Amino acid sequence: LQKVAVLRSPQMCQNWLLMDENEIKKITFDFSKIEENPIFNEVIIGNENSQIAELIKQLDNSNWVKVGKEYLTEPQWGKEVCPFCQQNTISKELYNEIQNYFDENYQNKMRNLWFLQDQYHTELENVESIKASLWNNEFIQWKEEILKTITILFQSLNTKLTSNYQKINKKIQNPNIMIELVAQAGVQWCNLGSLQ
Question: What pTM, to 2 d.p., does this model score?
Answer without folding.
Answer: 0.73
